[in-house]
Amino acid sequence: MEPAAEGAAESLQQQQQVQPCHMMRASFCHKMANTSEFGESSPSLQNYASTASALKLASLGLIMGISLLGNASLSLLLLKDSSLHKAPYYFLLDLSLADVVRSAVCFPFVMASIGGGSAWPYSALSCKIVAFMSVLFCFHVAFLLFCVSVTRYMAIAHHRFYSKRMNLCTCMSVICMVWTLSVAMAFPPVFDVGTYTFIREEEQCIFEHRYVKANDTLGFMLMLAVIVGTTHVVYIKMLCFVYDHRKMKPAQLVPAISQNWTFHGPGATGQAAANWIAGFGRGPTPPTLVGIRQASHPGNRRLLVLDEFKMEKRIGKMYYMITLAFLVLWAPYISACYLRIFVRGVSVPQLYLSAAVWMSFAQAGANPIISFMFNKELRMRLRACFPCCLGTQTPMEPYCVI
């Protein structure tokens, strides 16, 4: 019995030793299978990441090139052509120069972070400076477009006051006020720890949007929304003013009778005023123009004639399209920011967030395209300054009527 017992004990011990060996082999084979699967999927993930980075770099490089070329050309045109030295174009010049600086300073750092594997390769101080400049230019565009909307309404509804007061000094004062307000909005987060930081999902240094309990974040975003909303309210008011005055009937229906440029009759007042403004007036000043100095040249007229009215409408349309483009291109990113503010721990889809960030970048290159597209005067002056852009035109032959 003893040898049989010893044999059974040895067989049991051998079985106990073989079972762990089988378990170890199974776990080892499972690990090797996982490793092989990971090794097979890793190159595809790396290819996807490299393709996405290349696409981001190419698109951002295209945006930066269009912005630099378009805004620099528009700025040179506005500086070179003396006929464009007017109030609306002073604001457009400031807007173009700001976009040039934003494209030349902020975008290369974003490209460097993409090339570094979605990481910030520089110091924390440089990240704060870049984030401060990005926020500064965003608020600068918002404040400037609001001030332009107010001046557009004044040019249509109160043209006498506008043409008298909106000179170079006034425009420079408005521009300085806009930059001061922009700095006041963008500078305080510099002293707060963690508000200006590198956000890996956005691949840029920007304002870190927090939950609603952080009051600075909510106020920061509400101010931008209020400015953009108020700008559209002013444009709607201007549109209502134009629509209401379009329905007005002419003040004088009966033509006046002229004797040596001295008018009398039911339409005498309006006809005399029109001819007096045009430089054909002789005799006393018409009653409707008492207190208005006769212009030495057409640029100093105090009344809004039809051509000037059409020009002001074209400029207003151009600026409204710039404002609308600003709203459309920044709306996805602002929506993502509000989602982070009001929903704790929310994760915005990466594809949506990347598209929203790149749309906000594209706003810097959209302004010159919109300006040339919706402003006939700018296109004419561009052709005059760059004759090579002119196409061959067939000369018109004189003709006679038999």
Automatic annotation (TrEMBL):
Keywords: Cell membrane, Disulfide bond, G-protein coupled receptor, Glycoprotein, Membrane, Receptor, Transducer, Transmembrane, Transmembrane helix. The keyword Glycoprotein applies. PROSITE patterns: G_PROTEIN_RECEP_F1_2 (PS50262). One of its GO terms (molecular function) is G protein-coupled receptor activity. Residues 70-371 form the G-protein coupled receptors family 1 profile domain. The chain crosses the membrane at residues 57-79, 100-123, 129-155, 167-187, 220-243, 319-343, 355-374. SUPFAM superfamilies: Family A G protein-coupled receptor-like (SSF81321). Pfam families: 7tm_1 (PF00001). CDD domains: 7tmA_SREB-like. It comes from the Eukaryota. It is found in: Cell membrane. The keyword GTP-binding does not apply. It is a multi-pass membrane protein. Its main location: membrane. InterPro entries: GPCR_Orphan/Phoenixin (IPR051509), GPCR_Rhodpsn (IPR000276), GPCR_Rhodpsn_7TM (IPR017452). GO terms for cellular component: plasma membrane. This is G-protein coupled receptors family 1 profile domain-containing protein. It comes from Channa striata (Snakehead murrel).
